[in-house]
Amino acid sequence: MHICFIVAMQAEAQPFIDMFAVSEVKDFFAPLPCKLYSTEMQGHTLDVVLNGQQHGTDLVGCEAAAVTTMAAIQQRKPDLIINSGTCGAFEANGAKIGEVYVGNAVMFHDRRVPGDDAWGTQALGNYPLSDRSAEIAEMLHCRMGKVTTGSSLDMQPCDLEIIQANQGQLKDMEAAAIAFVASLYHTPILLLKSVTDLCDNGAETYEVFRRNLAMASQAIGDANRKVVNYLFGLKSEC
Ligand code: SAH
């Protein structure tokens, strides 16, 4: 089996990269900025692909995620894409900082396109996810939630309106873009997210995000390790 993790930020991927000792394949995607880390494990292939950087900062958001996913699928041809990363969540749903979730649906929350139902449907996305998502959540003993994606870290009232109208639970900046590209190639995709911040408790998102990034990245790294061991059928925990 060939699994390809798509991760936005180096900090989110580092604990996992270290756990599996995946090594960087320099300039694999040149001239694109995305970075490939890869290893072979008992006949299986594990890739971790990062968006790379611009202006000395990790590329986050939908455009970079879509380019990275398209390049990864075309050049690596994985059996499964896993988008692993951090997200915001809602205290009102009982979410906790550091909690790991598996996505059970994914859509955009900041694409407001007037028109008929077909335009609205396209704008919101709602892309298919791997039919093994529930099985993975059960294995991890974690909850499932609907991921909604937008281009900003903050949340404007119109974003919240769409999130609430669609029962969104986990807010990020990449998942729907990655799922969109995966759907075009009919590549199954799983979403694994850990919570860095709570969007409805009045705290400054950026500050809270920065404070919890290392802890949440460790949590998602642990979950990723369990998922890889489970899907590759490896007995010993790496
Ligand atoms: N300025 C930040 C940039 C990180 S953007 C920094 O200095 O590190 C936030 C990243 O974490 C995105 O990749 C996004 O997918 C995820 N994320 C975490 N919490 C989020 C939230 N509340 N809303 C949207 N994205 C969030």
| Separate helix tally | 7
Q: Which CATH-level-2 architecture? A: 3-Layer(aba) Sandwich
CATH fold type: Rossmann fold
Strands of the widest sheet, in order across it, are: 7-10-9-8-11
What does this structure look like?
This protein has 238 residues and is of the alpha/beta class. It has one domain: Rossmann fold, CATH 3.40.50.1580. The protein has seven helices and eleven strands. The protein has helices spanning 10-20, 62-76, 117-124, 133-140, 157-165, 175-184, 205-231, and strands at residues 2-7, 23-25, 35-41, 44-50, 53-54, 57-58, 80-89, 100-108, 143-149, 170-172, 189-198. The strands form two sheets. Strands 7-10-9-8-11 form a five-stranded mixed barrel. α1 (10-20) packs parallel to α7 (205-231) and α2 (62-76) runs parallel beside α6. The two termini are 17 Å apart. The model has no long low-confidence stretch (mean pLDDT 96). Bound molecules: S-adenosyl-L-homocysteine (SAH).
